[in-house]
């Protein structure tokens, strides 16, 4: 496996591999990629190539992602028709994952056509999950497992976690009544949560990028304080933690997830419904004679 440079004499041969691999997908920009475009990609990122007897037969393009900062973008995964069935695509995928991990990226991202169910399943076998879809294009991300850790042991600091939650929930100020419980969050409350349940984070304990609280209830695992730092949004981190909620629920013997959302936060209600949650109750905080909160549940199959 080698890296293509902008002035490599084999650039045209690599381009022929790309064109051949995408000839059945004329709508893809890769099907008509020009030499100048491939040269520019080689300058901005990397083009990994596999050759057989000095002839390029497979390649993949990588560069820092613009849509999911902190990930390495994977694109134009191409295998010449005559070289398929040899595991070359998997070799290239594994190489990109190693590169991203070695550089300290939190994961890898890619786009694929929504109708390409075979490709979506292929990427899924590497741990990629769909995090969005627009105009027939599915965005997928893979978060490295060691970026997610069961945190808040006695040795972990509480101040960064509290700061993350307050920054993430700041948009609620002036919108929800009564005010968010984040204002009452302190080291003692964190210690109580560790005692009653679990706290998981993405990122280092002293600089968390996202977090979630899990608390066992009699019939379900309760999800609370799902927070993502503003600078880390649109990376699929919330979905990663919600998927983790399902894993932890099953491990703890639950077949149901539950959470609550303030009545005013209609955009959050839509997000939870997209994640498979249904509205099951409307409640009021103590001292209020009007609904202030909605309970959502998700049954696990």
From TrEMBL:
Residues 1-145, 148-301 form the N-acetyltransferase domain. Keywords: Acyltransferase, Transferase. It holds the Pfam family Acetyltransf_1. InterPro entries: Bact_Acetyltransf, GNAT_dom. It comes from the Bacteria. This is GNAT family N-acetyltransferase. It comes from Maritimibacter dapengensis.
């Amino acid at each position: 496996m080698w890296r293509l440079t902008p002035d490599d004499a084999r650039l045209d041969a690599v381009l022929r591999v790309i064109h051949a691999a995408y000839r059945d997908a004329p709508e893809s920009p890769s099907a008509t990629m020009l030499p100048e475009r491939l040269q520019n990609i080689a300058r901005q990122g990397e083009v990994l190539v596999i050759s057989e007897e000095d002839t390029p037969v497979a390649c993949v393009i990588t560069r820092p992602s613009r849509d999911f900062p902190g990930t390495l973008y994977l694109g134009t995964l191409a295998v010449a028709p005559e070289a398929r069935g040899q595991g070359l695509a998997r070799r290239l995928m594994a190489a990109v994952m190693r590169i991203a991990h070695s550089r300290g990226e939190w994961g890898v991202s890619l786009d694929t056509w929504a109708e390409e169910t075979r490709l979506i399943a292929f990427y899924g076998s590497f741990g990629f999950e769909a995090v969005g879809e627009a105009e027939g294009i599915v965005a997928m991300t893979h978060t490295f497992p060691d970026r997610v850790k069961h945190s808040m042991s006695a040795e972990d600091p509480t101040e960064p976690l509290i700061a993350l939650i307050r920054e993430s929930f700041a948009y609620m100020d002036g919108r929800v009544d009564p005010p968010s419980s984040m204002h009452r969050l302190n080291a003692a409350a964190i210690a109580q949560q560790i005692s009653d349940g679990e706290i998981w984070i993405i990122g280092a304990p002293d600089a968390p990028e996202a977090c979630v609280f899990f608390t066992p209830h009699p019939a379900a695992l309760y999800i609370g304080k799902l927070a993502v730092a503003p600078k880390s949004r649109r990376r699929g981190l919330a979905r990663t933690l919600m998927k983790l909620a399902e894993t932890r629920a099953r491990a703890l013997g639950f077949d149901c997830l539950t959470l609550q959302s303030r009545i005013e936060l209609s955009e959050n209600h839509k997000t939870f419904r997209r994640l498979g949650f249904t509205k099951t109750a409307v409640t009021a905080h103590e001292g209020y004679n009007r609904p202030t909160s909605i309970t959502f549940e998700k049954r696990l199959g």
